[in-house]
Amino acid sequence: MERATAGRCYTSHLLLTSPDDTRVERNFQYRGDLSKTALPEMLFTIDRFQVPGVIEARRDGVTKQVYIKEGSVIHATSTDRDDSLGTYLYQSGKLGAEVYAATMRDRRRQNKRYGEVLVERNILPPVEVYEAIRAQIEAIVWSLFYWQEGQVSFSIGEFKNVDMLRIQLPMRQVVLEGIKRAPNAKALVSRLGRKETVFDPNFETNEIIELALEDDDYRLLQLVDGRRSLYEICSEGPLSPSDNAKLMYAFQVLQLVRRRSEDVGSGEVPVKIRLKTQGDAFSV
Fold it and tell me: What's the CA dihedral at 270, 275, 278, 284 to 10 degrees?
């Protein structure tokens, strides 16, 4: 059974087997296009349902999966070799070229997980392997915020894999941190409205504590008072105008701020804050 609304498609499924043999009971699936709906908005929608499942993003032959449970990211995988644990350790300088090549050969010959090879050969202690795997998983998640096109699906259901190393990244923190790391400021700013748009605060103190807002983040949020325009907030905020704008977009996605009623439904005009770009940075 399938139904489509507003560019989104929901499909019923019985049982699927993922490439890494993690079996997921999937009764409901969300599908979206990153060129039409931004990833942070998809993630916030998924988080509202607080259901377990797997996000799968596909682009140019690469597939990345993010596993969600109890409102947190607990694991991520990627078919891109650049996202592998070995590549991460090599590029970060944790492993030299010769050790990297030798351990990769051992991994293929023994058919073991790469982290197991590193520990069993006394190349890295377990704690460093765990920290590296955690950093690798986080890097896969953050990399998705660089994607501006591609297909994304979210399949609801429990998953079981005894070999899955699990971490705990609260989804709302993922949305905030991912937007802060996103390289394309202008693409995000255009989703905020007009430069004259005024926002009202819309948060409880416990929400920003759970988000672990940094000092500059909170200082920017405090500028949202129902009087200042988006232009003024991005100009007066504690960070660069581009970073302030990205934070404002994060606040909007997380519903910490909301547009004044007179702005809702008005024609969307890209915000022009004198975007003098060098890469993705802009200034007033």
Answer: -140
Which stretch of 24-28, 108-112, 169-173, 252-256 has the lowest confidence by average pLDDT?
A: 24-28
Cα–chain-centroid distance for residue 94? 25
Query: Mind listing the pLDDT tens digit for each residue in 74-93?
Result: 999 999 999 999 999 999 99
* Secondary structure element (H or E) that encloses residue 199, with its range: strand 199-201
- Rounded to two decimals, the pTM is 0.77
* Cβ-based neighbour number of residue 31 at 10 Å: 17
Please tell me the distance from the alpha carbon of residue 89 to that of residue 234, in angstroms, as a whole number: 38
Quick check: helix, strand or coil at residue 100?
A: helix
Strand-pairing partners, residue 151, are: 33, 58
Residue 3 has pLDDT above 70, yes or no: no
Looking at residue 263, the DSSP 8-state letter turns out to be T
How many CB atoms neighbour CB 206 within 10 A? 8
